[in-house]
Amino acid sequence: MNIPVKTDMQKPQGCTNLKLRQLMRRVAQHYDDELGKTGLKTTQYSLLSYVVKLGPIRAVDLAAKLKVNTSTLSRNLQPLVASGLLAIGPGADARSRLITATDEGQRKRVEAQRKWRVAQEGINRTLGAQRVVALHAMIDEAMELLSPGEPGQDND
Q1: pTM of the prediction?
Q2: pLDDT for 82-122, tens place per residue?
Q3: Span 20-146: which CATH code?
Q4: Which pLDDT band holds residue 34 (cuts at 50, 70, 90)?
Q5: Structural domain spans, the chain
Q6: How many C-beta atoms surround the C-beta of residue 87 within 10 A?
């Protein structure tokens, strides 16, 4: 990966938070434009995809996989349950609950996955595959370095 780096800058300039938020807004808009055609937001697509892949799954385990707290997960589940894409049912004991994708949720995920692919290929074309691979590696490394410790403990 050969990403051009300005060698004359020894000290970061500007606010990293602002730059990341600006980038995130642009990237999110790109995905939202495609996924919105299915009636899903990008966050809903991600959540639905995880449940399809991992379900049936307990909320605490899903929150850990998504790196969000259970309160955030609960809020994000509500519209998908209300629209009939996900269901929350009994678990192994009286206290546990399992999240599963309904048949309608499975179909919606397939439809949305096609739109996600269009969005991802657009990002790859615009930025270049090499830059996207480097960006993913930098994000993964930064996430690890900035990790607060226990999964699911983020303050989302």
Answers
A1: 0.76
A2: 999 999 998 888 788 899 999 999 999 999 999 999 999 99
A3: 1.10.10.10
A4: very high
A5: 20-146
A6: 17
What is d(CA 66, CA 47) in angstroms, rounded to the nearest whole number?
8
Helix (H, G, I), strand (E, B) or coil at 58: strand
Sorted by sequence, the CB contacts under 8 Å of residue 68 that are 6+ apart come out as 76, 152, 154, 156
- A 10 A CB-CB count for 45 gives 24
Q: Which run of H or E residues covers position 74?
A: helix 70-82
> The tokens of 76 are what?
């994000």
Q: CA-CA distance, 42 to 46, in Å (whole number)?
A: 6
How far is Cα 59 from Cα 33, in angstroms, rounded to an integer? 29
Residue 39 tokens read as 């009636």
Identity (one letter) of the amino acid at 4?
A: P
